[in-house]
Amino acid sequence: MSKRILLIDDEELVTKSVSMLLKTSGYETSIAQSGKEALEKIKETDFNLIICDIRIPEADGIEIIKQIRSYLNKAKKKQIPEILITGYADMEKYQEAMKLKVAEHLYKPFDNAVLLEAIKKTII
Question: Considering the domain boundaries, does residue 121 fall inside one?
Answer without folding.
Answer: no
